[in-house]
Structure formats: structure tokens, C-alpha cells
TrEMBL record:
It comes from the Bacteria. Residues 8-129 form the YopX protein domain. The lineage of its organism: Bacteria, Bacillati, Bacillota, Bacilli, Bacillales. InterPro entries: YopX-like_C (IPR023385), YopX_protein (IPR019096). This is YopX protein domain-containing protein.
């Protein structure tokens, strides 16, 4: 995790298949998410934890300046190590077992000059198959 990064979230709403920017996440006393506020709505407390996926901004941007969120699909291309080691491809952004931001098994912050966001695992799950 990048220290001092801007904290921003998006939510994927499964029933309507919409991605929305979040202005506030509301939690109950037990730490359970019970409401979400977006720029175009009041607090929505009708969302079930089973139908909403929260995505956090990584604090990083791709080579074109696009913000990278957890669950984004990024394409690595023109990597200088390509050849003896297969690097180029499409990878999901997430955390490894040491809580380091990665794309596949590659550390995200080291690959930024070669990365472009091409979608996310909710809107474009088919890209995960292409990347294999």
C-alpha cells in the first residue's frame, strides 16, 4: 500500500451492472457496510453486501495517467524482459500474500511504465481469459 495516497472508492453494483464513484461508505457498529453514497444519489442503504463489490484506488496511475483500482485489468506490453521471461499480457490488480500491490505475480509499482488499464474484472471478465 502506498503511504499518503488519496483514499477513493468505486462500487460495482451487480444487479444493475453499474460502476459508480463512492463519496461515502457507511458502516454499522459491527463494521458491516450498510450504506453507500454516490455523487448522483443519496445514501443507498438497500444494497446487500452480496450484490456490491467495493474497489479501492491504489494511488497509482497507468502509463496514460488513468487511475488504477483494485480489480482492474492491466495489460503489460513492450516490457524489456519479454523473451526469456513471459511478462507481456493481461493481469488482474490485487494484493499478494505480503499485502503488496501486484498485477499477476509482478509488483505493480515496478511495472507502471509498461502498464495500461484495459478494463476490470466485473465489466470485462472475458479479458482474464484472453490474458491466459
Amino acid at each position: 500500500m502506498q503511504a499518503g495516497r488519496e483514499v477513493k472508492y468505486q462500487i460495482w453494483i451487480e444487479p444493475t451492472r453499474e460502476m459508480k464513484t463512492v463519496t461515502a461508505l457507511l458502516f454499522d457498529d459491527d463494521g458491516q457496510l450498510f450504506g453507500v453514497k454516490t455523487p448522483d444519489s443519496e445514501v443507498n442503504s438497500c444494497l446487500s453486501i452480496h450484490t456490491v463489490r467495493v474497489r479501492q484506488f491504489t494511488g497509482l496511475s497507468d502509463k496514460n495517467g488513468k487511475e488504477i483500482y483494485e480489480g482492474d485489468l492491466v495489460e503489460i506490453s513492450d516490457h524489456p524482459f519479454e523473451g526469456p521471461v513471459k511478462v507481456n499480457g493481461i493481469y488482474e490488480v490485487g494484493y499478494n500474500e505480503r499485502m503488496e500491490l501486484c498485477c499477476g505475480s509482478w509488483l505493480l509499482h515496478r511495472e507502471l511504465p509498461y502498464i495500461m488499464v484495459v478494463g476490470n474484472k466485473y465489466v470485462n471478465p472475458e479479458l482474464l481469459e484472453v490474458g491466459k
